[in-house]
Design goal:
heterodimer; A: alpha+beta; globular; B: about 400 residues; mainly beta
Chain lengths: ~100, ~400
Amino acid sequence: MIRVIIPAHLRTLARVEGEVRVEVEGVATQRAVLDALEERYPMLRGTIRDHVTQKRRPFVRFFACERDLSHEAPDARLPDAVIAGTEPFLIVGAIAGG
Amino acid sequence: MSSVRVLVGTRKGAFVLRSDGKREKWDVSGPHFSGWELYHVKGSPADPNRVYASQCSEWFGQVIQRSDDGGKTWYQPGTPPGEVTAGPGSLPKAASNKFIYDVSAETGAPLTTHQFYDGNQHPWEFKRVWHLEPSLSDPDTVYAGVEDAALFRSTDGGKNWHELAGVRGHGTGPQWQPGAGGMCLHTITLDPSDPQRMFIAISAAGAFRTDDGGKSWKPINRGLRSQYIPDPNAEVGHCVHHVAMHPARPNVLFMQKHWDVMRSDNAGEEWREISGNLPTDFGFVIDVHAHEPETIYVVPIKSDGEHFVHEGKLRVYRSRSGGNEWEALTKGLPQENCYVNVLRDAMAVDSLEKCGVYFGTTGGQVYASADAGDSWAPIVRDLPAVLSVEVQTLA
């Protein structure tokens, strides 16, 4: 199980509280986690990454284990601690716009 | 007894204001979708309980919300209330915020670029829904005007959207440019006498009309004069801010352009200026009295560089002669130290016997007049900046 923390506005859309957990088959990557998240919570499609290009939205960032993973390749393996479930994968709304 | 429901979109959420036909005491609910920008909230004329809302954010993009109980509860179309998972074999969900430009050869719309601020061609990119216009006859059919400018339609209650590609494909698209607010299709006006006819407006391209249900479109900007366009007879490039129509007179259109208040008596074929004695003819909103097709309302704004009301006074101007002769309506409105704007979708009228007029300001006030503008009172004073105001008159 991968632990995922999503921003408050998206928790409202998904009608969840606190962190969510998703099951990922195969190698745990950003893409695999986001695919699983959108499968579980389809109302989040288009809010984290573009519907068509699948690119991360500009003001959304990814963090884990005190590292900014936003510019990592979507198919790069996530840190072991995220895969082990000891650390969450954080989806964060960037501090921007005032 | 009749009642009214005022749907307010703001920079930080939506609000629903309800009153009986007297329009003196108001019940305020909200914010709905707290923290999100609500560009537009509008009810279906065919089913007043059906309300659509455009919810968006620079961070998380576009979301479409729908209510089937008059704005009490909401859900994203395709995701029923309380159901958060897509079960095995269930229909695809969350396509309600999927606005994909049509570039297929079959629709003749291979357009991929428009003119950008720097004069170069720029790819069309979806940013947000500015305006939602529900069908006059079918609650499940709704049109969406979006940025970058295009028109979409849903026929399944907002679950799925398809572009009416003839708007971008009719030929002038590469000449359209973004206005200061972006290149947005912000006005959709349906002709109640002819389901095949509708009008749209785009900043900064101009007004367009279809007579075949949205397949083909023509620019209707003859007579518009925009000082920043070298060609005085330019077919497109005009910054139209809003267009209004009285349902009983669908060939008569009123327009608030960037500068100039305009009128057409032949469905947009020709326009003439009706600014008359307005203190300034810059502005955003324009609307028509529910029962008097020649009575129109505008809120003059000082200038394109100073987006606030003239002389620090919040004045609605009313013409009872279809333009040119205007009277200032000030009773109940602040007449000093007022520097708010009234944005293009932020005025509406009800259809009670004594026509009610409503508008919202960037200062967060929503004002109502229960006597066609003679006097005004705030319903609420301290909302986030108001982006849109729509009214439903309920039996």
